[in-house]
Amino acid sequence: MKLSSLICLVAVAGVAVANDNGKAITPPLGWRSWNLYGANVNQSLIMSIMDGMVKRTRMVAGKPTSLCDLGYCDVGLDDNWQMCGSPDAAPGMHYHDKDGNPIVNNARFWDFNNMTSHAHNLGLTSGWYGNNCICSDHCSSDPQSPECEMQIKGDVAAFRKYNFDSWKLDGCGGETDLVTFNKYMNMSGRAVTVENCHWGSKYPFKPDPTKPPAEGCPWNFYRSSGDVRASYASILHNLGTTVPLAQNNLSYPGCWAYPDMLQVGCAHGPGGKNDPGLTIQETRTHFGAWCIVSSPLTLSHDVNNDTISDMIWPIISNTEALAVNQAYHGHSGTQFKSSPKMVELTDAYIESTEGEQRVQTPSFQYFYKPMGMGKVAVLLMNSDTTDGQLTLDFSDIPGMSGSKADVRDIWGQKDLGSFTSSYSVQVSSHDCAFLMITPSSVVSEM
User: What pTM, to 2 d.p., does this model score?
Assistant: First the structure.
């Protein structure tokens, strides 16, 4: 049984209405190619990743378990499937013909139907990618023009023809009218999980609760940020973009804010030396942070590399961390306390790119997420250059009742005891403590 099927959701009055296609009621979990492989993709690679997602070569609670058993069941292809510069492209286009149909690079992807059938035979779903960034097709300066609509119709028809299940729609080309995309996808009668990848800046990039679902959130999750790099500075920057959205209740079932794919186990991807990779401490913070803000969890590492997989398995397979990610009790999770002391973070990408600003972040930040029945998950992050003691005052936690609480270590999956007023813990530089706080009044009722 997949973890997501074990999660109980609570309906909360006043929450903005999401895309009504019934998808992404909990944050989606899966894998997508870009963060490690970039443009270096082909059908053999994607099918081998699909095989790796269902292998039960590692254990959870003494039982052989695959990534899909944990809920990571969607395998998505990213950019560079298209035939750039095709002689069959329409005038001014790179990979759409005169009727708006996308042209596939058959040297890389010789049979999409074979690829999606392979996923389905393994019990997986298969994701596609549109409005591509490599050799973008700018159908018009007006995304609602007849030319753009024709290409949207052609892309949707191809999506159905190839039997894909989910779709990442980027912001590079001219097909940015996601309301029209949603209209044509719904016409087929089969619901599709859609990612709005408009980088937190290109309209439309966030939900509008004043509009009906088909217009206010015609997607299931949406990028709150630009692309994430495999560096701690980038992780912290992208995490920060979720805070104002959560504070305005704009991340919720069926319409989740998403600070981009995970960089867990990724290094030297499309950015080369500018994607240096994360330490194990930074990896833990990255994954914990994405969990506590209810972000979709999209892996991108080489699932068939045993060295990498063994290193990150205790993190990405932690069922208590995943349960925090999948729960929803009226709030998606956000920052509630931070240090007045600021530290400066940089990385190889920032240093090599003119105009990029170093990341200024508090030396510590505390995030919380309500878990129902009075329980609260809390993430204590130490971004300082040195190890340090972090103290959590129970009275600071939003919605926390009483001064006594039981504390559980989510990473270690063990109870730490009962504490009065506060809890203190030593946290290494760039690491975090991930805790479940249960007020004693709740414990006594259990």
Answer: 0.95
